[in-house]
Amino acid sequence: MKFFIDTANIDQIRDAQELGILDGVTTNPSLMAKEGITGKNNILKHYVDICNIVDGDVSAEVIATDLAGMIREGEALADLHEQIVVKVPMIRDGVKALKYFADKGIRTNCTLVFSPGQALLAAKAGATYVSPFIGRLDDVSSDGIHLISEIRLIYDNYGYETEILAASIRHAMHIIDCAKVGADVMTGPLSAIEGLLKHPLTDIGLEKFLADYNKGN
Ligand code: G3P
Q1: Which atom, in ligand 1's list, is nearest to the CA of 168?
Q2: Which of 52, 82, 120, 184 has its CA 20 to 30 A from that of 4?
Q3: Whose CA is nearest to atom 3 of ligand 1?
Q4: What is the Å distance from ligand 1's center to 165 Cα?
Q5: Whether residue 87 lies in the annotated active site
Q6: Cα of 186 to ligand 1 centre, how many Å?
């Protein structure tokens, strides 16, 4: 499973990159605003800065909600850097934009996906990634992980190559559950990734090994 970090925070992106497990970055306008990155030029520059830190794909979101605007913005984003993947919302014109970008060889991430039908449409339109938001489904007492398994089944039935990018990950257990049901990628905060690392028995075991080693010295 590929690991993406879902943040616009440069320090956290660097931390994850230095851990050696990072395959890419996703951002959205809310995450940019959280870091105080506002205004078109600052946002575009921030995307390039992120691309210069990581080796993998970096999702950059269009703001327009009409086809012409999405195409204009998406082409400009794709021109910024070869690692950029254009993030397009799952709306009517978004589906048309996914198809347009697929035909032009521009890679896309279809975002704000909450149902198997939306995921099927994204794959039909040729999206590179589809982003089901599992945490936000859990927030409203729907089963986010179940959605991932439904999309996995549908894509496998027909051999769709669209990668399932489980988004809105909130904690380590979401990552484990996504891995169990076959998500291709997960994107989450650094805290969720670091949650995989910790176990008290590891710390206790290491302390004992070191203490025993030191007895002989
Ligand atoms: O990748 C989508 C993500 O940014 C949304 O996460 O935690 O705001 O639901 P969250």
Answers
A1: 6
A2: 120
A3: 168
A4: 12
A5: yes
A6: 11
Catalytic choice (34, 40, 45, 87): 87
Taking the C-alpha atoms of residue 23 and residue 144, their distance in angstroms, rounded to an integer, is 23
Whether the pTM exceeds 0.90: the reply is: yes
Mean pLDDT calculated for residue range 149-175: 98
Q: What are phi and psi of 212, to 5 degrees?
A: -65, -40
Q: How far is the CA of 214 from the centre of ligand 1 (A)?
A: 47
- Span 84-117, pLDDT tens digits: 999 999 999 999 999 999 999 999 999 999 999 9
Residue reference for tokens 């905060």: 189
Calpha distance 184→175 (Å, rounded): 11
Residue 154: what pLDDT? 98
- Strands 2-6 and 24-26 come out as parallel
